[in-house]
Amino acid sequence: MPTIHELITRERERQTHSINLIASENFVSDYVKNAMGTVFTNKYAEGYPGKRWYGGCEFTDQIEQHAIDQAKQLFGADHANVQPHSGTQANLASYLALIKPGDKVLAFKLEHGGHLSHGAPFNASGKYYKFVHYGVSKDTGLIDIDEYTALLREHSDIKLVVTGASSYPRAIDFERMAKIAREHGALFMADVAHISGLVAAGEHQSPVPVADVVTMSTHKTIRGPRGGMILSNSKWANKIDRGVFPGSQGGPLVHVMAAKAAMLEEANKPEFKQYTQQVIKNAQAMAKAFTEVNAERYKVLTGGTDNHMVMVDITGTGKNGLEIERLLGEQSIYVNKNFIPYDPLPVTETSGIRVGSPMLTTLGAVETDMARVVSMIDKAVSGENVNEEAHKFMLELAGRS
User: What pLDDT does 399 receive?
Assistant: First the structure.
């Protein structure tokens, strides 16, 4: 068995020498990474700044308050809770705050791009609350607003609407969806786990002005440590805090909150907006490249993307998503298999893959690089060995920085 040090070294080499297109991953800066690997990992701090169940929290309080202040400034929110251990934990805590067990919730269908914590029957959300789901139009692949509205009309007892997605490549009109939800007497919650960085940079419509609660993870487009965060208006602030602690978590991970504070400092800088704009340009360049390299093999869902990800129907390759994921992984290119709407294959196989641009953009990639990457993917699918080409590409990127 390799030592822990050896495994860490190998993982560093894998990340350095491979092309990572997993849309839910990113590279953190040394500033964020160093903040996380500190003595704050030794500290227990149940409670909130100035109201702890342990002594010795004077510096912890300052760390957490700084993260809160940065989050409120960045997103223009009345209230921020930076303690959730993940985006899913943020969602579960928000449900505790907003509704009661057994209440009915309307959310985006998992198979069409939603998330496990939006009422999947095998997730705690689906076990404790009654979910009904809207999806996308079969013709356009876009969120079906007519179905969304009809479900709200049909189920007059819906207490909460949840929006947001993990595999939807188009912009979400939070303002319109919130307006419809309120017309039908429902609270409105937006999960921006994937697009939090885009929202922070002003490159996607923000749900903060129209939502009761906004949840997110912190390790995707916003380039932070693995964790979660909740924003809310002042009306829900106390209930959100109680939903996190003691409702669904014990002590916060103080070292992770320190890293979140570092992440938020970086996201408040002008350079982050420039980075986010390039993330979107690169994703759009990938979408175009898939169509140009072989439109019969690769069908880009919705015809493109407005955010950081591209959803690709790979039925034309003669392979399923699992086979493509494994084949590319063996050649130092990482994607993930993914359901596509109305997918005839099971979740263990899938007819699609999801590719994202955040990690390569962090390394300095631009549009022409994304076309090269898609060309490598097509070569690998055709049976060519592109390991050497992939490694050479990554070394070239490293040389630019």
Answer: 85
Q: What are the residues facing 360 on neighbouring strands?
A: none
Each residue's pLDDT tens digit, 2-59: 999 999 999 999 999 999 999 999 999 999 999 999 999 999 999 999 999 999 999 9
Q: Can you tell me the distance from the alpha carbon of 253 to that of 247, in angstroms, rounded to the nearest whole number?
A: 16
Give the integer Cα–Cα distance in Å for 13 and 254.
28
* Closest to 334 (Cα-Cα) out of 306, 354, 314, 319: 354
| Domain boundary residue, one of 239, 267, 295 | 267
Same domain, 278 and 323: yes
**Confidence check: pLDDT of 139 > 70:** yes
* CA distances from residue 267 to 62, 205, 262 in whole angstroms, order as listed: 19, 17, 9
**Cα radius of gyration rounded to whole Å, the chain:** 21
Q: Is the pTM of this model over 0.85?
A: yes
Sign of CA dihedral 74, 114, 343, 220: positive
- Give the rounded percent of residues in the chain with a pLDDT score beyond 70: 100
Write out the E strands in 2-101. 19-20, 47-48, 51-52, 79-81
Q: Which residue has the tokens 């227990």?
A: 44
pLDDT in the model for residue 401? 67
Partnered with residue 48 across adjacent β-strands are: 51
Do 196 and 334 reside in the same domain of the chain? no
* Count of structural domains within the chain: 2
Domain boundary among 267, 298, 316: 267
Q: What angle do CA 116, 114, 128 make, to 5 degrees?
A: 40
User: Given CA atoms 226, 232, 236, 241 in this order, what sign does their dihedral have?
Assistant: positive
Domain contains 246 = yes
Give 286's Cβ-side CA count (13 Å radius).
33
Tens of pLDDT along 196-252? 999 999 999 999 999 999 999 999 999 999 999 999 999 999 999 999 999 999 999
Q: Which domain holds residue 364?
A: 270-400
Do 203 and 320 fall into the same domain? no
Residue identified by tokens 């022409």 is 368
The H or E element spanning position 162 is strand 158-163
| Residue 23 within a domain | no
C-alpha closest to that of 377 among 279, 281, 292: 292
pLDDT of residue 400: 79
